[in-house]
Amino acid sequence: PVSTFQRTKLLMAARGERVEFVAATLLQELERTSKSDGLPPFNEESFQQVIAEIDACYRCITKLLTERGHEAKTDGAVACGLTTHHEIAVRNKRVLLAYLRARAMRLQQVRWELGSVLPVDIRQNLAESELNYFVSYDKLLGRYMQQIGLDLTADLQQPPKDLFLEVRVLEDFGTIVTPTGEVHLEKDTIHFLRRADVEPLIRRGILEHITRS
User: Fold this and answer.
1) DSSP assigned state of 205
2) In terms of Cα–Cα distance, which of 103, 153, 109, 147 is closest to 129?
3) Closest by alpha carbon to 175, among 164, 186, 167?
4) Distances (CA, A) of 50 to 89, 135, 136, 211
5) How far apart (Å, rounded) are the C-alpha atoms in residues 85 and 79?
6) What is the CA radius of gyration of the chain?
7) Distance, first Cα to last Cα, the chain
8) What one-character-per-residue DSSP string does 47-116 give?
9) What's the CA gap between 168 and 195, in Å, rounded?
10) Do the strands 164-169 and 174-178 form a parallel or antiparallel pair, or are they unpaired?
11) In 10 A of CB 66, how many CB atoms?
12) CA 42 to CA 153: how far, in whole Å?
């Protein structure tokens, strides 16, 4: 016959394997996507599932402590159950935090490399909280650069001569928001905009700088 201790270990191992697999899925998604590929869609389903599993672990801990807490020092099965549920919950909390941090760092990189205008293919993959984070980070970085009087995202090897550039739109891009208002970037239209707003789009081949002799 299987002892209570063995049954508990088998149960904990089964639960641990399932939880670990779901949590690891979130990190595997980021690993499969290189930084140059932007961000994969926020996996809300798996994220919420791991949260539910963490909650379930703590409910089991509470139940064990309430019903058999006095046996924790003498019954190996109880001690095993408490320890395993706690370790699973802590580990998966760390996985969720790592998932959020990795995506936040990618968003910061996007801001430095592509500017304050989020590409559509990245924007559509963000959770609402991530979009709010990007907007807040953009404002924070913008205020800092304004205070020091230097655009840290510009090419400092060739100091800009003009603060505004005349540009031609090479492909439909939609609407961008600038300090002076919204600008609709439709193919073949010409605009006179701040260098800081258009340089990232020029680097991406969406805009073309018009130089006049």
Assistant:
1) T
2) 103
3) 186
4) 9, 27, 27, 54
5) 10
6) 26
7) 92
8) HHHHHHHHHHHHHHHHHHHHHHGGGTTT-HHHHHHHHHHHHHHHHHHHHHHHHHHHHHHHHHHHHHHH-S
9) 13
10) unpaired
11) 8
12) 27
State how far the Cα of 206 lies from the Cα of 173, in Å rounded to an integer: 7
Contacts of 10 (CB under 8 A, 6+ apart): 2
Q: What is the pLDDT along the chain (213 residues), one digit of tens a residue?
A: 444 334 444 454 544 444 456 788 887 877 776 555 678 899 999 999 899 888 888 888 888 778 776 666 666 676 777 788 788 888 889 889 989 998 999 899 888 887 888 878 888 999 999 999 999 999 898 888 888 877 777 765 555 567 788 999 999 888 887 767 788 899 999 999 888 788 888 888 889 999 876
Q: For residue 135, what is the enclosing H or E element?
A: helix 128-148
Residue 2 carries which side chain, given as an amino acid letter? V
Name the amino acid, one letter, at 174. Answer: G
3-state secondary structure of 212: coil
At 108, list the tokens.
């910061």
The structure tokens 């904990």 sit at 12
